[in-house]
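Handoff note, outgoing to incoming analyst
You'll be picking up this chain. Sequence as last confirmed:
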Amino acid sequence: MTEQPTSYERPQPGTDPADPRGALLRTPAAPLTPGAAALPAQARSTGETPPGPSVTPSDGSGPEHSQPAAAEPDTHRPRPAPEVIPAQPGTDPERSGPGGQERRTGQVTPPGRPTPMRRDGDRLRFVGAATRRIARGIDLDEIVMGLCRATVPTFSDAILVYLRDPLPVGDERPTGPVVLRLRRTDRIPEERDTEGGFLPVAQPEPSELSTLTAELCEVRPGGALAEVLRGVRPVFADAPAARAALPELLGEDGEAVIPAGQRAILAPLRGRRRVIGAAVFLRRPERMAFEADDLLIAAQLATHSALGIDKAVLYGREAYIADELQRTMLPETLPQPTGVRLASRYLPAAETARVGGDWYDAIPLPGSRVALVVGDVMGHSMTSAAIMGQLRTTAQTLAGLDLPPQEVLHHLDEQAQRLGTDRMATCLYAVYDPVSHRITIANAGHPPPVLLHLGGRAEVLRVPAGAPIGVGGVDFEAVELDAPAGATLLLYTDGLVESRLRDVWTGIEQLREKLAATAQLTGPDHPPPLEALCDEVLDMLGPGDRDDDIALLAARFHGIAPSDVAYWFLEPEEMAPGKARRLARRALVRWGLEELTDSVELLVSEVVTNAVRYASRPVTLRLLRTDVLRCEVGDDVPQLPRLRQARATDEGGRGLYLVNRMARRWGATRLSTGKVVWFELNSG
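Most recent structure output, in case you need it:
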């Protein structure tokens, strides 16, 4: 799709129409000369701008380039360069003859048409304004659009921009043939009003340039186009090299869009190490042809655009790497542990700072428990993200050992000190037990969590603050609190509650009030939906009210009812497997799951047999009924069982093989006091 230039604006009353703001000068209406026909209909990319009246200041106060140099008063006073692209000047008495005839070429300039820039000062001002406009772009589309908007209509009537597909990044050496893709076209719209000003024009249909020219062009090695691109310097379309290269670039029908004479320039776009594309500048036949100095302008525009595109591609690659790094550092999906629902959000500090040190995690633990972790490493750099990844991995490993929360923070503190003396972080580690409806929390300098009760009351939990991770030589304290069914626990980083506009405790109070207000919308007996609650919490951030990245983890406690739990101790003796089968059978009958009796008895017997063979203390057996039936067998032996293929002559070694074939899922987890082997069966 083409876009109309932004230069076309209706002049406001009282403004000078010759003011260099991108609008074309107007002259009194006059018929076009017979030889100044527009581009052929099948080859035009833009419409023709009909002539209109010109407004010439009678007091001689027009723009500086509209008067001869000798007539300028106070020439010793410096004038600031305009920040906008200056319009092309009108006629110059030193270079134009009678009737608007250009002395150098003898060509008549039709009234109302843009004329070439007459003096070096005009060219310098145009190049300065155009390069500033191109340099403002930060991504590829902005830079290409800046080139198009800067040149149309001031320098040319239309432009085509071709870029390599794909664009090479940095020092990488592309393989395969060089392919150019038409990235953008721009042109002057045809419509004008009849009252002396330019009307805003609706978005035009796709330009005929884009329909007549080829979208893809493969550059043949040793061909005419390859030679022009290798030469780097812009060339006129009527040059022998360009006449052979343009059909290869534009396609079979593309030659028709090139006007006769020096009204088209082919400019290679060369980045830091290689040619990355080409630009074609076009003027209508009725407009003054390009001059030799215009090749220098085209070279400047092409150079600045190519270097900007190189930077944009590198920036895009860095942004992609940052996004991938942050994405892999955070959980791709949250687990679905028994008795709790989870939701999370992450927001970077800014679009230009996509990586940071904030993280969250949810780690399933033995006994249907789950560890909830949220942390914040100082800084918003790649280093912070790398340290965060190491601490998160360490926390996952420590959680797998089923250590108490305060011990996990102690080992994280030691790990942070091993990473460096200035590696500081805050962390909050909580373990939720759905059977006991209790939660154990330890804190290392992190903002306290907020608990939203089912009735709508929100409270900030009183958790000992502790010292940040990395300080060293400090103890961490854990507290155990009630976690009633229907309550929601919110863990967050300080970016949610602290900014330049408010301190952290003011933000925490606002968060508590926001949670309470949201809960009132659904009534006292229905907690708000978890995902919607996270969105409502983030809505408390106003524009410019975020200076840090944000990690948010919400946990809705459902728990497991005591009637859905069966728990026994078994002495490590030969009669234990038979007793375990009888106890499991009674529990299944009580729960109405008789269809699972055979499978559960067989698997329980195999797992309990393995446990009592090596255990020296009582073995535990627990059955949990939720959406699945879960069986857990614990003993005091730390060695984990391994699945192996028994030989035909072996009398044993087939217990875990049966568990693996019949169970929905199974696993073994090492505890501080031994291990737990568990399996699940579908209860429906």
